[in-house]
Amino acid sequence: MARRSPGALRAPLKSAGRNAVRLRPIDGLSKGANAAIVRLEGTHPGFVPVATALDGYRRAIRRSGRWLDLGDDCSCPGCDVLYQRDVLGDAMRRLPTAAFRELRRVVEPLDEEFRRKTLPDPRAAELSAWHAQAWWRQRIRER
Asked: What domain of life (predicted)?
């Protein structure tokens, strides 16, 4: 049986290189804030890219109608609005002050729409400490 060479096996896996993430700046942020986000993602290798989380958060909020459906249609973290907001919250906590302010300025209108399209869950904080840590986890998941 013929075997493929190691180079042929790796060829489809090649990416744009080490700087692939750096090529995609976040709209609405300065070069300095984008650079701070790239540094943050570089120092925390398991960190989900902030641009990816922001795009997913925007898409989830804008695609829905009057109510935001937080149902568990898909179990992957990339489809979970709360996970995407957690990533943005973690990034904002770890960024320097100037970059934090710029990212917060981009995220705040989305948060306002999130609040407008969901209802508070008065018992969410009683469920677990995880729910009590962030306001976006204390929202009703279904209409």
From this structure: Bacteria
Helix (H) or strand (E) holding 42: helix 31-43
pLDDT in tens, 105-133: 999 999 999 999 888 888 877 888 877 88
**142 three-state secondary structure:** coil
The ranges assigned to domains in the chain are 27-137
Please give the model's pTM, rounded to 2 decimal places: 0.75
Write down the pLDDT at residue 99. Answer: 96
Q: Give the C-alpha separation, 36 to 34, whole Å.
A: 5
Contact between 54 and 34 under an 8 Å Cβ cutoff? The reply is no
Cβ(61)–Cβ(68) below 8 Å: yes
| 3-class SS string, 44-113 | CCCCCCHHHHHHHHHHHHHHCCCCCCCCCCCCCHHHCHHHHHHHHHHHHHHCCHHHHHHHHHHHHHHHHH
- 10 strand-pairing partners: none
